[in-house]
TrEMBL record:
<feature type="active site">
    <location>
        <position position="75"/>
    </location>
</feature>
<dbReference type="GO" id="GO:0009307">
    <property type="term" value="P:DNA restriction-modification system"/>
</dbReference>
<protein>
    <recommendedName>
        <fullName>DNA (cytosine-5-)-methyltransferase</fullName>
        <ecNumber>2.1.1.37</ecNumber>
    </recommendedName>
</protein>
<dbReference type="GO" id="GO:0032259">
    <property type="term" value="P:methylation"/>
</dbReference>
<dbReference type="InterPro" id="IPR001525">
    <property type="entry name" value="C5_MeTfrase"/>
</dbReference>
<dbReference type="InterPro" id="IPR050390">
    <property type="entry name" value="C5-Methyltransferase"/>
</dbReference>
<dbReference type="GO" id="GO:0044027">
    <property type="term" value="P:negative regulation of gene expression via chromosomal CpG island methylation"/>
</dbReference>
<dbReference type="GO" id="GO:0003886">
    <property type="term" value="F:DNA (cytosine-5-)-methyltransferase activity"/>
</dbReference>
<keyword id="KW-0680">Restriction system</keyword>
<dbReference type="Pfam" id="PF00145">
    <property type="entry name" value="DNA_methylase"/>
</dbReference>
<dbReference type="GO" id="GO:0003677">
    <property type="term" value="F:DNA binding"/>
</dbReference>
<keyword id="KW-0489">Methyltransferase</keyword>
<dbReference type="InterPro" id="IPR029063">
    <property type="entry name" value="SAM-dependent_MTases_sf"/>
</dbReference>
<keyword id="KW-0949">S-adenosyl-L-methionine</keyword>
<comment type="similarity">
    <text>Belongs to the class I-like SAM-binding methyltransferase superfamily. C5-methyltransferase family.</text>
</comment>
<keyword id="KW-0808">Transferase</keyword>
Length: 429
């Protein structure tokens, strides 16, 4: 594919949720981002970045250079995970958008009246769009935010239509586009050269077969599929001690770094390929008689099972420790992943699956295991080897605030004349 003329400008670019698919399509973008660790992640991923305060950077400098425009303003002021003061400030943000669209900069006055200074960042895209519109740019626009921002996107839509754009805005569920997460977002799509419309969903909660009326849709992607926990491998959360995001308490009191293979040697709980969790504390005489000692057992010998202590576990992801926390089975997509001050509480939790009486006593339920940054990144559809920078808290913050690259790919493809291949953005890695 030949990269189109003109750059793609990405405001509030974060760690690269929009950039990952753009680069897959052979297109370079320039991201404006303030967060130090998001900028370091972008640099490690080879993404062009200007570290700056989007609200302070001169918009006119891009005039005459931009083909595509992307904006995902920070959602903390509007998100259900926060105090949602953006809703209180919403009339002030609407006023800022109207003023900026007319070429008037009243941000200083309006900012002083805002309950949350981040609220007004949702008006910043209009400052850039006004500057670009004076030279007939951009060709297309894509913006994303939490659902409560939809009224603001409708205001943007009205203004963009008056400038000659075709515009669509509404709420999309990321799971409908192959993201293993039921993340609902307010989306705005606009174009000067084609009819703006939402991308056709590729997935559904219940699979839909191909018919005369359409190509059909696959079942929503589950967490197990996204993480590569297949039907023959029971879910295996990564057991990783040493503190969670922000240095919280460790999931194991030893403070040592554990993997499930380590757990086999230490005699703690571990998975078995057939779905049995082993709770082997010691190699007893009966065990050795059946399987041999570690020294003489063949490397390819199957892992032992313990009739008296074996049990099947059903794993779920719990968003936090609150009574109303979202809890989803690994056979479903995750709920919306957000990682604020409760990032330490997002854990894999196990429940026993009913078994027959001859299976014996049920061993103690494994302790909750915190989700790792790699797992969270995969559930956001970032590559498994994405170079997240910073400590755990900084990594989780970037991941939770990012646009899922697989959703971004579906939103961008029509503007770029790209047809997504089913193998694009494979999830398990």
């Amino acid at each position: 594919m030949i990269p189109p003329k003109g750059l793609v400008l990405d405001l509030f670019a974060g760690p690269g949720g929009w950039s990952v698919p753009l680069h897959r399509f052979g297109i370079r973008d320039v991201g404006l981002e303030w967060d130090e660790w998001a900028c370091k992640t972008r640099a490690a991923a080879g993404l062009l970045t200007i570290r700056t305060d989007v609200a302070m950077y001169p918009a006119w400098i891009f005039a005459g250079k931009v083909r595509g425009f992307i904006a995902s303003p920070p959602c903390q002021a509007w998100s259900m995970a926060g105090k949602r003061l953006g809703l209180v400030d919403q009339p002030l943000v609407h006023q800022a958008v109207a003023d900026l669209a007319a070429g008037l900069d009243t941000r200083t006055k309006l900012l002083a009246a805002c309950r949350d200074e981040r609220s007004l960042l949702a008006a910043e895209p209009m400052r850039y769009l006004h500057a670009l519109n004076t030279v007939g740019e951009p060709e297309w626009v894509a913006m994303e935010e939490v659902p409560d921002v939809l009224p603001l996107w409708k205001q943007y839509a009205q203004i963009l239509r008056s400038w000659g754009f075709s515009v669509w805005c509404g709420i999309l569920n990321s799971a409908d586009y192959g993201v293993p997460q039921t993340r609902r977002r307010a989306i705005l799509l606009a174009s000067r050269v084609r009819t703006a419309e939402p991308p056709t969903p590729t997935h559904a909660q219940i699979a839909e077969p191909e018919s005369l009326f359409g190509p059909g849709r696959a079942r929503w992607v589950s967490m197990a599929e996204a993480l590569g926990w297949g039907a023959t491998d029971r879910p295996v959360p990564t057991v990783c001690a040493g503190g969670g995001p922000g240095g919280g308490p460790e999931p194991f009191p030893s403070g040592s770094r554990k993997t499930l293979s380590d757990a086999r040697e230490r005699g703690t709980w571990m998975p078995h390929p057939d779905g049995v969790i082993l709770n082997s504390r010691r190699e007893g005489a009966g065990w050795t008689a059946r399987h041999g000692t570690r020294e003489n057992r063949a490397a390819t010998a199957p892992a032992p099972t313990f009739t008296a202590e074996a049990h099947r576990w059903s794993w779920s992801l719990r968003s936090n420790n609150q009574a109303n926390a979202t809890v989803r089975s690994i056979e479903e997509p995750a709920g919306t992943l957000f990682f604020g001050h409760r990032a330490n509480e997002c854990t894999w939790v196990a429940e026993p699956v009913p078994t027959s009486p001859q299976d014996g006593d049920v061993p103690a339920v494994p302790e909750p295991i915190r989700i790792t940054a790699r797992e969270a990144g995969l559930l956001q559809t970032f590559p498994g080897d994405y170079p997240w920078a910073g400590n755990k808290g900084q990594q989780f913050s970037q991941i939770g605030n990012a646009v899922p690259p697989r959703l971004a790919a579906h939103l961008l493809a029509p503007h770029l004349g790209v047809t997504l291949d089913p193998t694009d953005f494979a999830l398990a890695a």
